[in-house]
UniProtKB/TrEMBL annotation, chain B:
GO terms for cellular component: ATP-binding cassette (ABC) transporter complex. It comes from the Bacteria. PANTHER family: ENERGY-COUPLING FACTOR TRANSPORTER ATP-BINDING PROTEIN ECFA2 (PTHR43553:SF27), HEAVY METAL TRANSPORTER (PTHR43553). It comes from [Clostridium] cellulosi. ATP-binding (A) component of a common energy-coupling factor (ECF) ABC-transporter complex. NCBIfam families: ECF_ATPase_2, PRK13637.1. Belongs to the ABC transporter superfamily. Energy-coupling factor EcfA family. Its main location: membrane. It is found in: Cell membrane. Forms a stable energy-coupling factor (ECF) transporter complex composed of 2 membrane-embedded substrate-binding proteins (S component), 2 ATP-binding proteins (A component) and 2 transmembrane proteins (T component). One of its GO terms (molecular function) is ATPase-coupled transmembrane transporter activity. This is Energy-coupling factor transporter ATP-binding protein EcfA2. The gene is ecfA1. The keyword Ribonucleoprotein does not apply.
């Protein structure tokens, strides 16, 4: 891995996790995951339902503890229970359903909730809440009731509640699954801004490939194993493999892949519509295709 | 022969919290005729009024003003049995898996047909048929719905509505939250159901790809108004307008519009990768022929 030299903010070593049920049945969900997340990275973890991606995410702040191998956050072994709070203050989590994460009746009180529990002085709370709401673009809604907000706005409030704690890392488990396109855009842009401006490490769990495309790095999980790990461009060039495990690729990438199967010579590392247009225009130009007029 | 409209609304208007400071028209002056057997994609961003609109079609909401006619019948006319309207127009809500309540899958799916007053034999045959349509195996029918996976639960909920064999099936985001394979599986079932039964389908979705691949017509709502109701080609051809109201068009469509802008003689009404591939290969072949 290219960032080997940076002390990873998150790390797993042969991480295994098995769910055990009362009736003696058990289900092994993670099969020895080795992953290092350098500080400041925007990592997307992609996988279909049941692939183990959410289970992996829950190991990053000790919501789950490994049944085999090790998980470290900020260099701390997550199974060291005396350090659980240190980990959770620095690795915040945002979940899928915004309605399950908001506890207060006023936006700014919700954002202040964790700080009050931590005993942060009131002036400091005021300052951090304002900062956090500004960072997610929700300051003007500080006196609203959560039910007056859209799904995307609620998720941004949930994110504000996390960043008010000044974490080094935020893990988001399908934060946009229940949102409409506008809400999805709002949340993804907020995440990218926090990564860029505040240098917060981001782990985004998703099955929307158009979100994963925007990350620095994409890890694809299937059946509890890491299947692919690399820059979005190289990961999404594996069209056949991704489709075979039930994931999507951008339509632009799929089109070029399909045309190559038919014998055309086109680049395979295309993600956006613009890149696809360029590649096809070159091909059509070369074969002297008919132009309009 | 022109088909009779199965759904017709006339100047439909619905106002929330009327007479309070929060008063807001959720739908305003919506007049539309939807023909029998049509597969309609319903799009519009959150708050556009699309969910409020579909909730009028089986009488769940009563219009503030205007009329709703199902098969020519004004559903709010005196003496109309609105229960019967609900058998005719089946509505599957968002995240319907949270609405399961019976202790077996069979009982849950049979709830609707039982309310219709059908015989036990008829109920059973409808449950089996509906379960098959959504791809639930028979051994699941005696299980508790709460033992099933999320995707299976959603199929149970959909089966419960189609067991009533409604003439109109309305599905609000049936694939939300599912991964691509789960999405495709649900949509394929709906497509097959539409083909087999010839029912009218209204599919509410945020995914333009899903709409493009399934629907024959598209209904677009924006700010409580009906802004477009036309064929898929005609609606997606207005891509700038769609973008300006916060909607999107499929990436593949943007590619072909882009190629056409650069002067290539390609069809820009392309919505699926399959059609895109065909179109490029056609253009290459004809180009090679010396045009």
């Amino acid at each position: 891995m290219e960032n080997e030299s940076i002390n990873p903010i998150l790390e797993t070593q042969n991480l295994e996790f098995t769910y055990s049920y009362e009736d003696g049945i058990s289900n092994k969900v993670l099969n020895g995951i080795n992953l290092k997340v350098p500080s400041g990275q925007f990592l997307a973890i992609l996988g279909r339902n049941g692939s183990g991606k959410s289970t992996l995410a829950k190991h990053f702040n000790a919501v789950l503890l490994p049944t085999g191998g090790k998980a470290y956050a900020l260099g701390i072994d997550t199974s060291d229970e005396t350090r659980t709070y240190d980990i959770r203050q620095n690795v915040g989590m945002v979940f899928q359903n915004p309605d399950n994460q908001i506890v207060a009746t006023i936006v700014e009180e919700d954002v202040a909730f964790a700080l009050e529990n931590l005993g942060v002085p009131p002036e400091e709370i005021r300052r951090r809440v304002d900062e956090a709401l500004n960072a997610v673009g929700m300051y003007e809604y500080r006196n609203h009731a959560p039910h007056q907000l859209s799904g995307g706005q609620k998720q941004r409030v949930a994110i504000a509640g996390i960043i008010a704690m000044k974490p080094k890392c935020i893990v988001l488990d399908e934060p946009t699954a229940m949102l409409d396109p506008r809400g999805r855009r709002e949340v993804i842009e907020t995440i990218m801004k926090l990564n860029r401006d505040e240098k917060i490490t981001i782990v985004l769990i998703t099955h929307f490939m158009d979100e994963a495309v925007r990350a620095d790095r994409v890890v694809v999980i299937d059946h509890g194993n890491i299947l692919l790990d690399g820059a979005p461009r190289s990961v999404f060039s594996n069209v056949a493999m991704l489709k075979s495990i039930g994931l999507d690729v951008p339509q632009a990438a799929e089109l070029l892949y399909e045309l190559n199967k038919s014998g055309e010579k086109l680049p395979q590392d295309v993600l956006t519509a613009e890149e696809c247009i360029d590649a096809l225009a070159t091909l059509l130009e070369e074969s002297h295709c008919r132009k309009i007029r | 022969m022109p088909k009779d409209p199965i759904i017709k609304t006339e100047h439909l208007r619905y106002v929330y919290s009327e007479g309070t400071p929060f008063e807001k028209a959720a739908i305003d002056d919506v007049s539309i005729e939807i023909e029998k057997g049509e597969f309609v994609g319903v799009i519009g961003h959150t708050g556009s009024g699309k969910s409020t609109f579909v909730q009028h079609l089986n009488g769940l909401l009563k219009p503030t003003s205007g009329r709703v006619l199902i098969d020519g019948q004004d559903i709010w006319e005196k003496g109309v049995d609105r229960r019967k309207i609900r058998f005719k127009v089946g509505l599957v809500f968002q995240y319907p898996e949270y609405q399961l309540f019976e202790d077996t899958v069979f009982k849950d799916i049979s709830y609707g047909p039982r309310n219709m007053g059908l015989s036990e034999d008829e109920i059973a045959s409808r449950v089996y048929e509906a379960a098959e349509f959504v791809g639930l195996s028979e051994d699941l029918l005696e299980k508790s719905p709460f033992e099933l996976s999320g995707g299976q639960k959603r199929r149970v909920a959909i089966a419960g509505v189609i067991a009533m064999q409604p003439d109109v099936l309305v599905l609000d985001e049936p694939a939300a939250g599912l991964d691509p394979k789960g999405r495709e599986s649900i949509l394929r079932r709906i497509r097959e159901y539409h083909k087999a039964r010839g029912s009218t389908i209204l599919l509410v979705s945020h995914s333009m790809e899903d709409i493009a691949e399934n629907a024959s017509k598209v209904l677009v709502m924006n700010k409580a108004k009906l802004v477009m109701y036309d064929s898929v080609d005609a609606v997606f051809a207005r891509s700038q307008e769609l973008l300006s109201i916060g909607l999107d068009i499929p990436q593949i469509t943007r590619v072909f519009i882009g190629l056409r802008k650069r002067g290539f003689d390609v069809n820009d009404c392309i919505y699926t990768v399959k059609d895109g591939k065909k179109e490029i290969l056609r253009a290459l072949k004809e180009g090679g022929a010396g045009c």
